[in-house]
Amino acid sequence: MHNFKFFYKSLLIFTILSLVACSNDDSGGTPTNPTNPDDGFQGTVDWIKTFGGSQEDEALSIVASSDGGYVVFGYTQSTDGDITDKTATDSDFWVLKLTQDGDISWSKTYGGTGDDRGQKIIKTTDNGYALVGYNRSNDGDVSENAGLQDYWIIKIDSAGSLLWEKSFGFPGIDRAFSVVQTSDGGYFITGFLDVTASNGDGNDNKSFIEKHGVGEFWGIKLDASGETEWRRYFGGTDNDRSYDAVQTEDGGFLMIGSSESDDFDITDSQGSYDFWLVKVNAEGTKIWQKSFGGTEIDVAYAIASDGNGKYVVVGDARSNDGNITNANGNADLWMIQVDGNGNLIWEKSLGGTQFDTGRGIYPTQSGGFVITGNSRSNDLDVDQNNGQSDVWTMLIDINGNVVWKNSLGGTGEEFATGVIETTDNKIIVAGSSASNDGDIPENKGAKDAIVIKYK
Question: What's the pTM?
Fold first, then answer.
């Protein structure tokens, strides 16, 4: 009897420990009904829609509108299909207003006769929108162009009417990728400056006159009317590009992107290309800079704040050393969390044995984040692949643990860069599609804008 009681007690303890271990295991695949902290989110596709014409059309950014719909932004080369106000096949900024069900409310293009490409849209406090990208035009809607490509920012109202536009640049290639509306009602734009072509111009800090090299992080602070308040560039002798920025709790700005340099402003290079973070104060003075990555090419594309002084940065990493501890394949979606001083809190690699990347991130109401990008894998962290490259979207908690993920696409190439969570806990993803099969309902031309709604 004593031996039987001992066996029963041991079996009970083993069972309890096994249940606890299973409950803590976060390495499994996508759950059918994910345990998701965002109330009401089922993790299923509500609808998928493509937009465009017979040429190349791409969505790169999306925001929610005040009427419950969505505003999609990118660029178009088409003159037909869903594009109704364009007569030439050069690239123009393209804004598409959608209803909650994905139907078109209006479509508008902005630009000139050159190549003008939109990158990021934000909703402004007056319920209008600010759009940034780069232009090669000096006619049409574009008032000036200083060289090959310039930063271009447009302010429109809620109906898409152009209120004002501004160009910033020098004779070389200068591209804006992101904009934030600042706490004082102005704007902060980030991208990169061809400082060699500018001959060192572009930095209003007169105490610093030394020219760096090929490309620099270039931040420009504007007032509410688009007038320049200050400009600063940061980098080294090689190629350094900023792709996103946030305003920090102290009124400064945190710019992120990639750096190939190991000199001048870069003091802790990890390898070929690194995630590079540059913190400046409200006047544009550099406070700190940090590099993260390994010996290969690692590029940061997007950043979001948790609202409590910490930030999550996403991109992709080809390295399997340095700060990267669990690489999976060719390239992984790599994300890091840092505090307000740039100290690394955690890092995570997600993906399979092929090329996987994160291109957009948005904070959720539960305190986590939704991330989108694309994947070529169909193993390890990626549940399936329908073709060359699929849209890959996931929800993570504050510690970077995946609580839901989904990949979809067709036999062509699908990419995603824009993502938001709506107030009613839906996820909206914007990108581009070249398929007309699989999960993709229609292809209207060479490349279409695609919008996906998860409920």
Answer: 0.91
